[in-house]
Amino acid sequence: MDIHTRIMKKNYKEVPMWWFLVILVINIALIVVISVYYNATVQLPWWGVLLACAIAVVFTPLIGVIVATTNQAPGLNVITEYVIGYIYPERPVANMCFKVYGYISMTQALTFIQDFKLGLYMKIPPRSMYMAQVLGTLVAVIVYTGTAWWLMAEIPHLCDKSLLPPDSEWTCPMDRVFFDASVIWGLVGPSRMFGDLGEYSNINWFFLLGAIAPFLVWLASKAFPAQKWISNIHFPVILGATAMMPPAIRAGSGGGTIGATAPGPNPCPPV
After folding, report:
1. 88 neighbors 94 (Cβ within 8 angstroms)
2. Does any domain span residue 247?
3. pTM for the complete prediction?
4. For 182-199, what is each residue's pLDDT tens digit?
5. What's the half-sphere exposure (Cβ side, CA atoms, 13 Å) at 71?
6. Which domain holds residue 164?
7. What span, in angstroms and rounded, lies between the C-alpha atoms of 98 and 55?
8. CA-CA distance, 65 to 76, in Å (whole number)?
9. Residue 245 is assigned to a structural domain of this protein
10. Is there a domain that residue 260 lies in?
11. Contact predicate 182/96, CB 8 Å
12. What is the mean pLDDT of residues 154-166?
């Protein structure tokens, strides 16, 4: 136990685990209710909500370890879009909601943990940090939702580039990326690109290679213990670094990416 943890344990009370579990259960229950009673709008069935939450629960500690040791955070945005696109195709809103609950939940959890880590170094009481996080989240949800509804009501042709003036600042580029991703992965679907209906099915083998690669490094480090450099090979970082490659640029244009799937504001109920 490091000195920071000893000081915190000596002077402050820990946050009880049931505080976190209560929020988790309430949020999942609300999302399931919404998916059942407003299914025509969100399109995502109740089992999709549970599957997305399961993905977030499983991957949060795994990616958390990678972030803690390398400061690199592999994203689950494409993975979640890929999974629900196969299981529940031709439903773009369901695809977006599944990504929000499976991917954004994980990123928010890691951000929450990072704040607690900062609080550990700054000697902020854990319960005070917890309440600040919860209240901040509630305020943010109310303000963001209210602002979004106000903009949609007050700004004519919001996000519609075909009707907005050329110099308008209301083109919503991040929202458009989110929409494009829903069309690519939800409406078109991965089966038409990486499945039997597509031409890139062999790319799926890289899922297996990515899962095996760290195990091969571990075997090599055990087989050649004198070679200390082998244990420094970190495939999640190597493969994740490809996300930093320059994007494809449209021919004859000064910018703009093709097929970007960056996360943006979401239309789904907050989690």
Report:
1. yes
2. no
3. 0.82
4. 999 999 999 898 888 888
5. 0
6. 3-198
7. 10
8. 15
9. no
10. no
11. yes
12. 88
- Residue 243 inside a domain? The answer is no
Number of domain units in the chain: 1
Q: At what angle do helices 46-70 and 77-87 cross, to 10 degrees?
A: 160
Q: What is the pLDDT of residues 102-154, one digit of tens each?
A: 999 999 999 999 999 999 999 999 999 999 999 999 999 999 999 999 999 99
Single-letter residue type at 209? L
Cα 268 to the center of its chain, rounded Å: 14
Query: Phi and psi dihedrals of 249, rounded to 5?
Result: -115, 135
Q: Give 169's contacts (C-beta < 8 A, 6+ positions apart).
A: none
